[in-house]
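>> received
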Amino acid sequence: MTANAELSKSFSTAHLGDTPIRGSSMLVLVAVWLVLHLGCLFTPGLLDDVDSIYIEAAREMLVRHDYVTPYVDGVRFFDKPPLMYWMAAASMKVLGPYDWAARLPLSLCVLGLFFSVYALGKRLYGERGGFYAALVMATSLGPYLFTRFYIPDILNALWMTLGVHLFLIALDQARAGERTALPMFSFAVVMALNLLTKGLIGIVFPIGFVALYALLTGQVRQLRRMHPVSSVAIFCAVALPWHVLAAWRNPPIPMPAGVGLPTRAGWAWFYLVNEHFMRFRGLRIPHDYGQLPIPLFWAMFLLWLMPWAAFLPGAGRWCVQVWRSRRSTSTRTREAALTPVLWAGMVLGFFTLSSRQEYYSLPALPALALLAGCAMVMAERGDGHVARSLLRWSAVLLTPVALLLALLCGTLAIRAPSARAGADVSEVLTSNPDQYNLALGHMHDLTTRAMGFFRAPLLGVAVSLLAVGPLAWLLRRRRHTYAANLTLAVGMCGVLLCVHSGLSRFYPIIGSKGLAMDIAHDLRPDDGVWLDGELTSGSTLLFYTRHRLVLVNGRVNGPWFGSFWPDAPSIFADEDALHRAWTGQQRIFLMTYSAARETDLRRLGPTRVFASVGGKTVLTNR
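>> returned
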């Protein structure tokens, strides 16, 4: 009997989900989380743009005691559903209004994601397969990068993982004629939480998976046994109250003509129509986001799973073989092969047809992590085809790329000119504002001259990549599979810690906590804090100064729609308003990116540089 046949038999004759949880596996996952997530919770500060905007919305919920309508800078903010705000607000209510406290719930959800991937992987591929899948999720590039700022997509991945697992459990019980109430009612709650996290996409993916899986496996009739009416009722009980209250408290009001809006619009139009259906078609108003080309989106999807993406071909080949011989394989084997492929394909297919950014593929990454875990456990159990595939792709892709990157990082670290004492990283960067609508747009600003600021992280990456590439390959070649996999994971922990260190050094460019704290130290209640530009260019000022922010030429994007409400505060100013305020009696702190702004204001009266860092300057008229 071949190794493939033996593994197929193990799927059909044993419930792999019944294999016991290993304490050592859980301890490793917790240790990785403690190092990479809890350990990196306190630095750097909040980032300008969505990171600080979403957390500021949570803080203003606490101040206003209004947990239905989000506000940012006193203006209604309808862009996202409320669960992320509620989580941050609850944490800050208990621990205090600190950035780390606001981030803590998302970090805990990341740990929950590791455990949920472990549990689903244990069901599909046994305990070792679940451990490997969770380890992949914990040490891949994308999940770490996109938890450095407060966005809902990794939480969306958690709900998707739980939803898929609960449905598969319910399907087992339906086939056995058992009651499916508990897993299906839990599935309904998870879907409602997903809706409150990411909007309608939170139910499109789980329901799409359920429908397609039942159709492809010929089990549509089993859906009738899954309490559809009761589950829908529970879903509505959890999800609808906020939607009803938000629509009731923010009804349609007259909108100005000539700006692309309907005659009357409120929360329902902006959130349901504009934020969902028009965004899907790339017609959202205002159009304040970037759009990745489809080939780049797919390439980044694989990049986010690096270095473990090198193990996907082996698992993919096995999945194809199982599907071709599905009539002769067990239900559990077909489930193990179909689940991750259908899941990932559905998410990628959806965003291929709609608007897309770099991180939109995150809900599919647990599926790829499961596939990588499948490949590793199959190789460990003696499947020669998969073992040779892992060794081959490690030799022809992973090791050469790791060595090339290690050489590049080491060369840059050694040869880059040292930063002079007191130098600002902004002095050696370029500016590419046309790229800043993308989440990682500031990466385009880096130059070889800037590498001197990142010498230690670059050297750390170079050393860590030696473990990721050649050392792990050497162990795999000698058939020390478990040691090779752990070595690769440890190497990636080193890489990711260096990424965090680099982000902290780059922080003055993408965040303004230092400037905000300087302002807050001298700020009096009757002073004015102004920002030269739109809110996303300095939104950290709001959170750290706890002071209303006036935007100069900033009535665009995030606060634009909310500014049409009659109770919106007067936070929008033009050049004339700035000039009048500068020569008035109020002390003004103005943060600007423009070197010409100081010259402009000196013509009007006293102008002093209060602080400057990261290409940003705070000017004051006193």
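>> Confidence is low (pLDDT under 50) at residues 6-15.
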